[in-house]
């Protein structure tokens, strides 16, 4: 059948593309469809909103030391992108570069996460709790859906910390 929300042809209990259930229409097709229309429209709006995120890019902003200005360290901000949300979704993505990172006295690491929709860029200060005695952290990301991400840290022992789920918006 053809999905009522996204138009994909499929067999099964729900659409593999947008997850809308396979609705069996019994009785007058046009009449029943009319009744379902508000529900379909609402679901489609949500689906499109969810998928609009897929081209957004998420990255880690770090300050790279480029030398000294007298006694002061001179640093410039630099962003390392994990990829687009479409690339990241349902995978574990790690940045190639190791970063020297230290947890503060509360065993927290704060990272500056950048989200770009192609036009605008927003920043999120993401806290990773429970990190101890760590240098040379690798920074990774995991997204279970297009709206929510977790930042992870690892060193040679393995995963040493993970943030709470954060929204991309
Ligand atoms: Zn569908």
Task: Explain what the structure shows.
It is a single chain. With 169 residues, the chain is of the alpha+beta class. The protein folds into 2 domains: 1-51, no CATH class; 57-167, no CATH class. The chain has helices spanning 29-52, 85-88; strands at residues 57-69, 72-84, 92-94, 109-116, 121-128, 138-145, 148-155, 158-162, 166-167. The strands form 2 sheets. Strands 3, 6, 7, 8 and 9 form a 5-stranded antiparallel sheet that branches. A 4-stranded antiparallel sheet has the order 2-1-4-5. Strand 7 and strand 8 form a beta hairpin. The protein is elongated and about 80 Å long. 18% of the residues are buried. The structure holds zinc ion. Zinc ion binds at residues 3, 5-6, 8, 15, 17-18, 20.
Give me a quick take on this structure.
It contains two helices and nine strands; from the N terminus they run H-E-E-H-E-E-E-E-E-E-E. It is of the alpha+beta class and 169 residues long.
Q: What is the share of helical residues?
A: 10-25%
How many distinct beta strands?
Answer: 9
Rounded Rg: 22 Å
Please tell me the overall pLDDT.
90
Task: Give the helices and strands, then pairings.
Elements (H helix, E strand, L loop, with lengths): L28 H24 L4 E13 L2 E13 H4 L3 E3 L14 E8 L4 E8 L9 E8 L2 E8 L2 E5 L3 E2 L2
Antiparallel strand pairs: 1-2, 1-4, 3-6, 4-5, 6-7, 7-8, 7-9
């Amino acid at each position: 059948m053809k999905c009522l929300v996204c138009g994909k042809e499929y067999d099964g209990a729900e659409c593999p593309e947008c997850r809308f259930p396979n609705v069996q229409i019994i009785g007058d097709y046009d009449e029943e469809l009319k009744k379902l229309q508000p529900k379909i429209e609402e679901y489609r709006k949500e689906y499109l909103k969810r998928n609009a995120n897929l081209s957004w890019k998420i990255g880690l902003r770090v300050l790279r030391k480029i030398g000294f200005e007298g006694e002061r360290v001179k640093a410039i901000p630099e962003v390392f992108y994990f990829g687009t949300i479409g690339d990241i979704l349902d995978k574990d993505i790690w940045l190639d570069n190791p970063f020297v990172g230290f947890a503060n006295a509360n065993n927290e690491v704060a990272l500056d996460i950048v989200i770009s929709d192609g036009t605008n860029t927003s920043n999120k200060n993401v806290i990773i709790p429970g990190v101890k005695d760590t240098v040379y952290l690798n920074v990774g990301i995991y997204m279970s859906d297009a709206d929510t991400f977790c930042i992870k840290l690892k060193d040679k022992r393995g995963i040493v910390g993970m943030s709470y789920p954060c929204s991309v918006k």
